[in-house]
Records
---
Amino acid sequence: MRADCARELMARCDELGKISDDVGRLTRAFASPAMRRANKLVGSWMRAAGMRVRVDAAFNLLGRWASSQPNAKTFLLGSHLDTVRDAGKYDGPLGVLTAIAAVLHLRERGVQLPFNVEIVGFSDEEGVRYQTAYLGSNAFTGTLKPADLARIREKQIEKARRSEKFLGYAEVHIEQGPVLESKNLPVGVVTAIAGQSRIRVEFRGEAGHAGTVPMNLRQDALAGAAELVLAAERCGVAATVGKLDVLPGASNVIPGQAVLTLDIRHQSDSRRIAAVKSLHSKARSLARRRGLKLLWQPVQENDAVPCDKMLTNIFSQCVANRGLTVLQLPSGAGHDAVVLAKICPVAMLFVRCKGGISHNPAESIKTADARVAIEVLADFLIAVAAVYDRRQSPR
């Protein structure tokens, strides 16, 4: 591998990280001007790696390295190019740029694969614009629901697009947690992705004067919401209230309305669902006790996704072949692989990130770790090709 390959990847992450919809912080939302500029820049790097490039109707960026074999099937690589608000520069883009670097490395070595490789830079994984994740990958797989389409103002987006059968999907991503760093390992192999429930919760009470309404006669919507926040903290699974809006929002007015988001995750779907039911019951109970009206609106539900055993084993062997300790671990974060698992086998490789920090401008990875990720992903494609060839050979 070229000595400057990993440094080039890091420089590209820096360059891409400057493309934002917001001044002074990194934010790229679905179909935004910044997203279009990002697609143009990353598309130029795909072309430089010898790939045919296009942007689909859902603003997903696609780079295709065609196999020389006729009627070849396709293996997918990728991650997302959108970001959260005030983001770091590696969550998502690292996976796309690592895939480009791995393809370039294989092409420079003269490697011929028995399948096409298509790299996808998904347009919306974070859900910033419409508050529902995986818009890009759902459009790519043809699994958008009518409710998703109702939220979207870009009329050219298609509900069902792809009829092609894919061999698999592999995604490189920063860990977004501290486990790899605690074990001093550059990469880890993902075994499963946690299931996730997203819920919009609204409490409606009665606004009133902060000085004249007795405490025992109030219908304080925020006080009800606060009880639910504390119940979520104690529910036994990963439960987060990431957003809380209070109306009318004045210091001398009792809150008459409180709207919050609940994000509940676990590798066990049964435990996650039980936590959702328990919190819903708690919300109904406290609303009755406080004289509030409760609106409980599920926004998104994704089951836990196990990674494909064969592809996971191949990733593990590729890591071991590089003289590294193999660590297999689950992902508490959601990824586009959740949606791709509906249509093909999926696998993931985590890359160590400093302090486990993510969704934060302080996201940081080491150049040496980026190099390991490129090497392991390139080795992975060669190993998958060997398995594919054996399966296609006449017996």
---
Amino acid sequence: MTGTAPSAAPAGNAASAQAMQFIQALATEVSGAPINLPSYPEAALRVQRALADPRSDAAKIAKVIGTEAVLAARVVNMANSAARNMAGKPVADLRTAVGRVGLDALRSVTFSFAVGQLRNAANFKSIEKPMTALWQESVRIGAAANVLARKFQLAPPDTAMLAGLMSGVGKLYILTRAQKYPALFGDPASYADVVREWHPQVARSILENWTMAEEVVNAVASFEDAHAELRESVELADVLAVAVLLTSLLDAPDALQAQLPQDRAALRIGVMAHNCQEIVEEIKSQVDQLRRSMGA
């Protein structure tokens, strides 16, 4: 998931020069003070701080969320979704909704709200299309990770979903910064190289700044290496790696079945040719549910 850069390619020398400038700027930012997404909504930061505070209870979290009407409505909507309201008893008050949804799902819906605000920001209009594509891919990965974690009992499904949604946060940061480097942004190959090399480090810096759980931080920063690792134990990074593989080939069953036997993360989890189609159908359904429940 690299985001979609414009197709026009300026002279290679200009792109290379700007790539070097951009990499130097990224290296300085990552090694310095904690970084955050540009123009990240203050309301989302307040909620994230409340969720990270072990002294926060449902009432305190609801009070913080309640200062932002759009976010509050999304939390109530998620609490009343089919997956979380199996008894068919809808809730209307935010405190009850917070208790029903749970902390990791609240982190997910808060991030979804924040990305929506970024996509609508005037200073990001020039990259609205690639930003939207990147976010839609993150939603698919979050849904797939949720399905895999639940089906194979690998991790709390909401934690896996959160990690999936965060899987592109480093790429999102790079996208918002790269618009200031038009020669680099206009050269898809050079831009993709920068994203591939730098997004894990950027993601780690942002997620640590948000005090995300170490398990989530490590998974987001390392899942791209999981496909080739020889270890036997299953980690959250494996869930993300296989989620990315499945979502990239949702509508290419032959290619997916050919790829699975070669993928060590898929083998560790147990995703194989005989069960992958059933999993793919569950993922497609979960994507729709996630979009509806989070307004994504």
---
Amino acid sequence: MTNLKSKQLLPVGFYDLLFDEAEKNHHNINTVLQTFFDAKYRLIKTPLVEFEENFSCNEVRNSFRTTDIISGKNLILRNDITPQISRILATRLKDKNLPLKLCYVGDVLCARSEEVYSNRQQTQAGLEIIGCDEEKSNFEIVEVTLLALTKLDVKNLLIEFCLPDFLDIFLDEIAAKNKAELREAIMKKNISAIRQLSEDNAEIISEIALSNANLAQLIEKISSQIKSEKILAQLKKAQKISDYFKSDIELRFDLFGDSDSSYHHEISFNIFCKDFAYPIARGGRYRINNVSAVGATIYMNCLRQTN
């Protein structure tokens, strides 16, 4: 029996779900999808494997790869579903009128995982509004995502917003020297490096990078120290987000963001369950095939760790 068991181990980060756990996971996925359907999102299903040539270098990082024995071309096993939507928009959906409201669910496979639980097999359930750049679509994506999590009875939710354009605007407006180095230090929240690279503005930069619990107080400090219409316009965006959602859920603002928000522009967000270290959902606005889009992904495997 011991010898049989040793031959049937799974790779690190892959798992079986049995009985109650499998049924609960199935129920959670159906609940999320029904929430999307009720909000008029249409379901699409994409393949687990695609030609590597369909994606950019950044999109195939952290992917499992193999070779197609029929065509001889390199294949990747998807590590995210959102990039696949780009291909569908350029082909199967190219004649559809915009905006499009799409949703999806499926497993993705990551070659590596930085998380404690090391899930390399993950299930994503997401929704997208493609071809609409109106601010209300940003709010709709957040609201529907929160509604789905609420229907799953996820407790103690916290949402952290980022303004992905804010950092570059801020560095331009303060005429930062060593901009690339300072930007990297801010993204890594390296306070000692920030102090070395920006003597004049180190204090306010450090506070923006680290203090996100009291947005009104932070806006007041920034506005009193740096006079810039462009920065003020960004701060007004943050305040508008805060005013819209403040009665529904605990909010935080990481105005500068980090490397996870670099894919987005205008707005990005992470949703946390307070007792869990990693986001259970994330999203934001981005461009796909030169079209503005906004979307969010719920990580179903993370939900299994929270309840």
---
Amino acid sequence: MRTIASAEFVERAACISCASANLRELSAGKFDEGPLERFIAADPWGEDPAPFLRGQPWSYVACQDCDLAFHRYILAPEWNERRFSRWMSQPAIEAFEQEYRTPANEFATATDHTAHVLRIERLTRELRGPQRTKVLDFGCGYGGFLAMCSLYGFDACGVDRSSAKRENNRFSRVFAEIDEVEPLAPFHALTLFEVLEHLDDPHGLVLRLSELLAPGGLLVLETPDCSGVRALETLDDYRKIHPLEHINGFTPETLTRFAVRLGFEPVARPTVYVTNDLERVARTAAKGLLRPLATPTTQQYFRKLQD
């Protein structure tokens, strides 16, 4: 009888932002118990991870000094590589994303990409002068944002760890490692869309990436908003703090503190209009006027402080 190996995890015993060891547990359990077991079973996979996760604990904690929440236990590097190469196969990724690939969602995504491009162009004018806008998109996925940048004449490249996404990318300049893009630095803008929540060491990685960003350069961060999420009880909880995928749970406040600690200052997002709907233009203009009163979000812009 063939023995199934158990996945190996490592413990993050200190805060992934401020390094404090003053943590409190918000919730805990095992991968093969309760709602989490059902949620994992319902997801599409290449190689099914469930047999490797039996009896393994999870623990969702929060830093008592800076409030950032994260999963204490994360897959060991060799098992995380297995997750990328075998559990998250290309057919599994496509099956998971299929329900989101509607004409309305694809249109909205293209609109969002354009809005980011226009904001980045506006906010980097003084920094780059007559040069092309140089953008590095870390965790670029299939390269949709990079393709939009290219259409606007940006000098853009990306990094993505997933071999399935690199091999099926829409954009040619996508690399597996940061080392490969270092010769292309400095960049005028660095973007991480829906990336920080996946990183074992988000502080260390963004610190390294910031070295590739010109002084005064732009940092764009976007994560799921995990405000109020403390446990894995509902499907929405699972989508936001999946203990294999979304191992860090940011809120608007903790995202801002995270970036400021790394040497960035918040920047107001310029109002842009990407629509042919006059009513939407009016709503966007109104939101711009009311922005100081608006609810904070986990889509934020920052500028690197001058050295």
